[in-house]
Structure formats: structure tokens, C-alpha cells
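User: Please fill in residues for this 314-position structure.
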């Protein structure tokens, strides 16, 4: 499990798009996104999340752009969302006084506000987008770890048993939720390997540093090409190794027997490529693989014929 900790939002010494870039990159790289705030999920906390309004400007799904794409399309690429509310002081009860979960609290906070004014529409837009972008969402509330202000200044030096038991239990609950629900990073149905994830990060960061909007389709194409090139060379090596095991020590041999060895080696290469290649461009590399294998077979076949003729002369 790779944990990425980003800087907080709202840095005073950065430009207006800095937060959106950090937020967007974290979303693109993660399979489980933890956002934390202090106090409660009130109107101020929700408006601090108003950068979700511009996410489609900072992340494109397709090569031609993405601002006109339905926000629900983004949810297919966005991670699970956990909102952690620290120093929480409210009681988790509904209007009837019945207890509710922290997830219920989040869902209630995301209910649309009544009214038709521009300000109400702005508030509800943030709520709609949060629900559209993050279909898999949850919340975890946590009380203040200590009640004494002077102890809070020295929090990192205190032992777990010195903290409020309620806080410790909520930390353990959050930990269980994350550990049990976290999943491998998946893109277009394919689980990312470590190398693929690094390539993904490089692609997105290069785009951001150039002032270009990160594009999921372009990043996926780049990953597919890298994986297919590796799979192509591995498959050719598989063909060579398999054919060597089956035929090289037996040359010269009957042409029919050599042909059968070639078929088995080709099957092993094709199977190996099929397991390791990624994306729709794999078919193009498969054509190149079959052509290269055919050329290799022609070479070994010529060599076999020469050895056969030499043996006949002897």
C-alpha cells in the first residue's frame, strides 16, 4: 500500500490554480482518497470544497477535452472518498433524536438546500458534484484527542493511552475502514503495477508542469504502449527459449517435426504476450510479433535445411 500525503489546501503563497492541481493529481493517482477538515460539515466546509466545480477543467477524460462530459462519467475514474472530520463536537443524532452514523451525517450534509437564488444554486452545485464524482463515499468523525490546550501542543510525544479513549477508538475505526476497503489502483479495468503507477504519475506531472490539463485517455495510451513494448520483447524471448528447448539440440531434423516445434514455441509466445499486453493497441503489436516469429522460423528452417544437406553429403 502506497500512502501519498499532499500539502493542505489554501496555501497563501500559491496561485489560484495550485490547490486544484494538487487536488486533481491526488484524485488521479489514488484508489482511496481521504480528505480531512476540522469542526463539522457545515456550509463553510462545503464551500471549501468548491474546487470540485472546476475539476472538469483540470482533468480531462478524453483527448479532445472534458468540460462538457457528464460528471458521472468521472466517477468511473475517481477513487473512493473518505471525509474525516477532526475535533468533532456535535452529537450524531437526526431530527427525531435517533442516533445516526457518520456516513448518514455526510449524506444529510449533502442534501440540497431549499431555494432558487444564485447563492443557493452555487451551494447545491458543490453538493451535486460531490455526489456525482464520488459515488463510493464515507465519513469518519473524530473528537479532539485531548481537552487541555497545553497537551495538544505536545501531542506527538504522548502515548496512545494518554489520549481520550473515544478518540483512540475513532482512530482505530478509521484505520479498519481504510484497510478493509482499500483496493488496487485500477484504470480502464486494469490493475496498475508499481511500474505502471509510476508511469501514470510521470505522465500527469509532465502535463501539469507544462501547463497542460492531465488527460486520462492520453495517460492510458502511454501506459498501454509501454506495456505492449515490454510484452512484445518478452514474447520474442519466450519464442526463442521455447524453440531452443524443443529443437536446437536436434537439428538437423525432419521439416514436419521442426514445424511442430515452431507451432508450440509460437503458441507460448502468443500466450505470454496476451497475458502481459495492455489496451486496444495490443492487436497491432500482436501482428508485429507474429511477423517477427515467422521471420525467426524462416531463419531456423534455412539453417535446418543446410545442416540436412551437409549430413546427406557425409
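Assistant: Residues filled in for all 314 positions:
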Amino acid at each position: 500500500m502506497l500512502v501519498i500525503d499532499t500539502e493542505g489546501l489554501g496555501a497563501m503563497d500559491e496561485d489560484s490554480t495550485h490547490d486544484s492541481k494538487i487536488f486533481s493529481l491526488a484524485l488521479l493517482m489514488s484508489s482511496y482518497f481521504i480528505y480531512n477538515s476540522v469542526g463539522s460539515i457545515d456550509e463553510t466546509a462545503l464551500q471549501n470544497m468548491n474546487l470540485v466545480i472546476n475539476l472538469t477543467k483540470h482533468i480531462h477524460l478524453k483527448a479532445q477535452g472534458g468540460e462538457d462530459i457528464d460528471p458521472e462519467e468521472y466517477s468511473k475514474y475517481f477513487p473512493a472518498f473518505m471525509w474525516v472530520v477532526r475535533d468533532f463536537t456535535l452529537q450524531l443524532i437526526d431530527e427525531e433524536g435517533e442516533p445516526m452514523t457518520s456516513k448518514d451525517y455526510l449524506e444529510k450534509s449533502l442534501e440540497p438546500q431549499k431555494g432558487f437564488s444564485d447563492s443557493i444554486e452555487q451551494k447545491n452545485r458543490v453538493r451535486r458534484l460531490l455526489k456525482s464524482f464520488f459515488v463510493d463515499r464515507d465519513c469518519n468523525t473524530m473528537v479532539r484527542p485531548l481537552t487541555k490546550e497545553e497537551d495538544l501542543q505536545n501531542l506527538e510525544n504522548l502515548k496512545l493511552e494518554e489520549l481520550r479513549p473515544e478518540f483512540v477508538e475513532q482512530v482505530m475505526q478509521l484505520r479498519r475502514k481504510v484497510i478493509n476497503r482499500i483496493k488496487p489502483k485500477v484504470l480502464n479495468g486494469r490493475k496498475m503495477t508499481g511500474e505502471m503507477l509510476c508511469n501514470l504519475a510521470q505522465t500527469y506531472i509532465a502535463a501539469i508542469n507544462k501547463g497542460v490539463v492531465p488527460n486520462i485517455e492520453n495517460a492510458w495510451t502511454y501506459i498501454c504502449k509501454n506495456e505492449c513494448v515490454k510484452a512484445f520483447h518478452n514474447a520474442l524471448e519466450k519464442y526463442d527459449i521455447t524453440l531452443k528447448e524443443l529443437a536446437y539440440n536436434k537439428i538437423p531434423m525432419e521439416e514436419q517435426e521442426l514445424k511442430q516445434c515452431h507451432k508450440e514455441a509460437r503458441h507460448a509466445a502468443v500466450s505470454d504476450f496476451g497475458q502481459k499486453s495492455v489496451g486496444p493497441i495490443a492487436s497491432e503489436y500482436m501482428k508485429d510479433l507474429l511477423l517477427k516469429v515467422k521471420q525467426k522460423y524462416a531463419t531456423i528452417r534455412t539453417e535446418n535445411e543446410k545442416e540436412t544437406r551437409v549430413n546427406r553429403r557425409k
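For context: The chain has two domains: 18-183, 219-313.
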